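Lab notebook, page 48
Experiment: co-folding of the full assembly
Goal: obtain a model of how the components sit together before planning crosslinking
Operator: M.T.
Materials (sequences as entered):
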Amino acid sequence: MFLTPVALVMALLVFFPLVQGIAFSFTDMNQYNMGNAFSEPSYQFVGLENYRNVWADLVAADSTLRPILVQTAIWTFVNVFFHFTIGLGLALLLNRPIRGRTVYRLLLLVPWAVPSFISALAWRWMFNGSYGFFNLVLTELGLPPINWLGDPFWAMVAVIMTNVWLGVPFMMVTLLGGLQSIPRSLYEAAEIDGAGRWKQFWHITLPMLKPVATVATLLGIIWTFNMFNVIYLVTQGGPVQATEILVTFAYREAFQNWNFGMASTYGVIILSILLVLSAVYLRAMKAERVEGVMD
Amino acid sequence: MKRVRLGLRFALVVLLLISLLAGCGGPGSQPTGQPNEGQASGKPVKITFWNTMRDYEAAVVQELINEFEKQNPDIDVEMVTVPFGEAQNKFKVAAQAGNAPDVLRAEVAWIAEFAALGFLEPLDEKFTDQEDFLPSALAYGKWNGKTYAVPQVTDALALLYNKKLLAQAGFHRAPETWDEFVQVAKKLTDPSKDQWGFYMRQSEAYFTLPFIWSFGGGLIDVETMKPLINTEGAIKGLEFVKKLRDEYKVFKDDRDFPNDYNTAMQYFKSGKAAMILNGPWATADILTGEAFKDNPDNLGIAPIPQGPEGHTGSPVGGHSYVIYSKSPHKEEAWKLVQFLSTKEAQAKLVLELGLLPTRKSVYEMPEVKANRIITDFKAVMENATPRPVFPQGGLIFAAMDQNFQAFYTGKKTAKEAVEAIVKEWEKLGVKP
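Observation: model returned without errors.
Model output:
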């Protein structure tokens, strides 16, 4: 009874678009047959054809999708790795009683407060081969300039640098919150027992941080996997699709080629990958926790 | 205990904030097509006009609109400036939903697609003085035997050059063939001083098209839908650009794709590149550069050099006014388009902004004739080439950009690149 409004809102906001999106992936919908305010839609049900096309592309010798999947994996893993390690490092530093702690915390939040598209455009200019900040510094130091956005490897480095900068503050703040919820008494007890700083970190901080860290990295994985702005604005997926990830690829299919059927198919694939990834990740974390010292 | 709760609360607030922020962002903000008010009330009819010009350009259009409103007190025009890069998608979304603006300034490559989707009002009956317009600009507005657009401005890529730098090297006119171009560019290049004869944009296929055409290649023959991009001429054109870069070394190989428009302009404006390819829209900006601001005449504007067989070519671009087919105020919308397209209105627009008019009679006006930039570009327009007009005409560049970039980075040979383009174009109806 009390749940009815919630269920209704959920149905309207979540399930209806979701089901519709999945349904579109079985059609040949495009801008000519999608219908509009003045004409009836005329797209056809095509069964699994879109999925067959994806599969055919995936196994083809000159596949476009395979390198994009690999790039998406690299992009997600490297980003979340640096988000977590740098974020944890900064959180540990800021958790100590130092003077002006609030100021540091606020300053470190800046990247997160600036709209990501503005940051992305600024970074793109800093990567400029002739006039960019990074190459000016490199040449000042007597090093050869780097072809940041024209070279497939460096372009990936560039977008990852941008996104790490954008993502660290969230991880830092969340982990800081987690750190502060660890009771001091545990450390005091450990100190009496003669545990050193490293032991304390390993046996108290990390296990106690785990619930927060698990959720934060999972969110990080999902966001990074779907991070559109940075890639699209810094490299546009280039050079020659070397930094394209699944979402930017799906976006092109939808809003450049206007093939909604195919784009929905990619959407369903992205959703499935993330669901599987989340399930595996959460299970792994849970399993480890059961074996862990704290429980 | 208190500390625990504080920490948790902090984390929770942060999480909440994030989910809120994530929900707000995104490219999903809907365009705001103004609903039209009823006419019966005696209030002025309100029509919406989406303009895609930059702010300083839109200001001139606004002056024209103010004049129009004074002459037509029963019509109230609301001009909305929509960023050029978003306008095509925004208009499509709004038109599907039934609330597109009454008038849109459309890039020429969009018109056939919008017309094929049924979004544009045919103008043949009203648009009666078509013979005064340049045929190349008019051609983009025709689809299936009907006319859907009134050309506003036209453009084409020209060879822009720094007269002073060329003269210092002993050249007193622009190169007329690519052979001459190589000589000039070589003489003006000194990599140790970061001084270059040319700056080539390798990111966008549009800027490679002059090479394709002048070596005898093409894009698509729209009559038969056969590709011309995989012909020998097109391949030779591509290979020539690479030769300029790798053999003659007359332009900097920075392949800085996302930045190269700005970098090209920067090099040319500061006199570090002697020649670039660009269109009339760039002239106002170029004249603010240190190499030109004290002496605007230093900017040379010349047609694209000729290839070995005497061919040349440059993509005709431009913008036109179109009227939304479901607009409830088509009469008023047409009045506005007509007003903005008069000889006088066009002359004001192009003279203040250094753009190219689409009316032949405007080119004959003494004040226009006295404008060197417009007259120099007129010579370029005479040899320019229209792009293929068909509904997917606006989509042919995606495959070209990708594959030309692959060619310039060495991932594909010219032949592999053009074959890959044809394969992609098959999805757009090209028959290999």
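Interpretation: Residues 158-314+392-428 of chain B form a domain with the D-Maltodextrin-Binding Protein; domain 2 fold (CATH 3.40.190.10).
Next step: discuss with group before ordering constructs.
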